[in-house]
Amino acid sequence: MSEHHAAIAWTRADHPDGNGSYSRNHLATLNGGQTVQVSATVDYQGDGNCADPEQLLVTSVSSCYMLFFLAIADVKGYRVESYKDTPVGFLEKNEEGRLAVTRVELQPTIEFADGQTPEPAELQRLHAGAHRNCFIGNSLKTKVRLRTQSAAA
After folding, report:
1. Residue 144: in which H helix or E strand, if any?
2. What value, to the nearest 5°, has the Cα angle with vertex 148 and ends 147 and 150?
3. Beta strands across the sheet bearing 109-112
4. The pTM is what?
5. Distance of alpha carbon 78 from alpha carbon 3, whole angstroms
6. What is the DSSP letter of 113?
7. How far, in Å, CA of 136 to CA of 56, rounded?
8. d(Cα 21, Cα 18) in Å, to the nearest integer?
9. Rounded distance, CA 147 to CA 129, Å?
10. pLDDT per residue over 68-99, tens digit each?
């Protein structure tokens, strides 16, 4: 139905710690020419000033979920004024004993327009629809879990 392209580029450089290893830093280029400095996580000799692939995966899940939540809320007549999330991904051993991002916990705080905050059951239906339809979440073996939070309107 659609294709999604990105590019990454890495060129050998010494590791900044001078440990005889190589730098993990590289550049990701997205649609529109946006660039993101990427490296391995610090635990794997990466640069803490860069995004790491695990962060980008967690961000992708959160962003996709949010976009579906906003679309479903809009169709249902709810005006969302703000949506913030602080997702957490967990790198753990999976069933095969291999390291994997085994779960992602979303923690959205959603503010609706005055008088438009859905009842708890309806809010759960909005979340369930976003969870069911999120392309990224549906693409992963990772369990995507939601920890809801509410914000004062």
Report:
1. strand 143-146
2. 150
3. 80-84, 109-112, 149-150
4. 0.86
5. 31
6. P
7. 12
8. 7
9. 15
10. 999 999 999 999 999 999 999 999 999 999 99
